What does this fold into?
Amino acid sequence: MACVRLILGDQINESHSWFRQVDERVLYVMMEVRSETDYVRHHAQKVIGIFAAMRRLAERLGKAGHRVRYFKIGDKDNQHAFADNLRSVFKEVKASRFEYQQPDEYRVDEALDSFARSCDLPFAMQSSEHFLDDRKGVAQHFQPEAKRWLMESYYRVVRKRSGLLMDKDGEPKGGKWNYDHDNRKPWKGEPAVPRSWDIVHNHQTLWAEIQAAGVKTFGEPAAANFPWPQDRAEALKQLKAFIEYGLPNFGDYEDAMHTSSDRLFHSRLSFALNVKMLSPKEVAAAAVARHEANPKEVSLAATEGFVRQIIGWREYIRGVYWAKMPSYREGNGLNHQAPLPSWFWDGQTKMNCLRCSIGQSLSTAYAHHIQRLMVIGSFCLTAGVNPRAVEQWFLGVYIDAFEWVELPNVIGMSQHADNGFLASKPYVCAASYVGKMSNYCSGCTYDPKDRLGPKACPLNALYWDFWLRHQERFANNPRIGMAVRQAMAMKPAEKTAIRKKADELRQQMDSL
Ligand SMILES: Cc1cc2nc3c(=O)[nH]c(=O)nc-3n(C[C@H](O)[C@H](O)[C@H](O)COP(=O)(O)OP(=O)(O)OC[C@H]3O[C@@H](n4cnc5c(N)ncnc54)[C@H](O)[C@@H]3O)c2cc1C
Ligand code: SF4
It folds into this structure.
């Protein structure tokens, strides 16, 4: 008689209360299954990173005295679906109870709920003990019928509740809730970017097993120099190094991009956070502690900017996902239907900003927020690519991509496909923004200053055409009305030329 507890690949949480006591009547089950490797085509590093972390957790639990049943991707008795493997285990151990932690993905949540109800055993879904708020927290904060929710108002509630960066009188530290406007500097080679603090592994054996099992992936596996953490101890080292070396400049250069550094001052903690090696609370608290210990070295603006990402955006995005699924993924408010250009799979485009951002994503399974939003996302939005195609690419390519966080970021924040429910303005840009925030344009075949000539930067015509196409919808939006009015004030001949140029670009997207 045994209680069978399932641990999913994004539940690598060694601090979970399940593991506080060793109980020989409990059997932990972990499995590498094709249902999870195949629901979308994943980047090779994503599959390696998750399996490596699962194997390490199983090993650590075993060493601590817990009973673990682990299905490897190549095991003969692996039936490659949660339900089938669990049924076999239930039989093997004469299970008397089934428990699992709350899944974060709608798809897995539905599947496990219907499996648990069908398996004729008492069962319980327990908290993953990771997030600051529960699934319904965001929905409860807003009026259900509201046309749009604003992250800022939810963030203030979470900040008050957490006490992070709050004065004793209940006011935000420094008198302001938000220092976003201080975080807008380009990076020109100074201050020096810290040396990488990644801990490198050799996962060639695991990669060979994944390939032998026939799993189809894309992107560079980097199996011999694998740079992502495998367990909590490594993730804590990564956190410590970021707080020490990255955080002091995080805020100032949060929006900057540069060909000489993939990460600049970003943390690269999203993988460790999303597989739950680290908790959001400890990550935010570590940043606040560093600021409080030395406010001259780590400014309030840098700290607040970082804390807002973790306890604001991350929790808010999750709440939107749970409030709006499953219909949210079908959103296509601007009726965009173009296919994803072929160079999304090999990075071979002449547009240097996209070549660098996509090329980096394919080789490292990572791009920072502004590369995702203002380069890759903005191109897709202005070119009119189907948001679902964009979403599936984003879900596969990044090591941190799990649907609960990826989907609202793509469908809502980046592609405005939810009619502005999550973000109040579309995030689009022309070459002037890319030129201001990066050095991409200096290595480009295209001319960032030109809109219409044969060498004109494609982003320019696509940008102005976007506003012309959607002028009625956005003209009264106070956050972007100026850009729309500028487009509307163009002479008719100029408007026609922009539209013609944008149409031509859309006809030849694969060769841009
Ligand atoms: C189109 C698009 C797709 C995205 N897809 C994902 C995804 O699949 N998974 C993912 O974790 N993040 C996603 N993000 C959010 C963000 O870009 C990444 O979290 C961040 O780039 C990860 O790198 P980092 O750890 O160096 O982040 P940092 O810049 O160091 O930020 C610190 C942490 O803040 C959190 N964070 C910051 N912004 C967001 C946000 N908008 N939503 C949720 N959390 C946030 C992350 O946990 C991140 O690790 C996406 C953003 C966009 C615009
Ligand atoms: S010129 Fe245009 S395409 Fe080239 S890097 Fe600059 S913004 Fe990108």
Notes: The longest strand covers residues 95-101. The two ends are 63 Å apart (CA to CA).
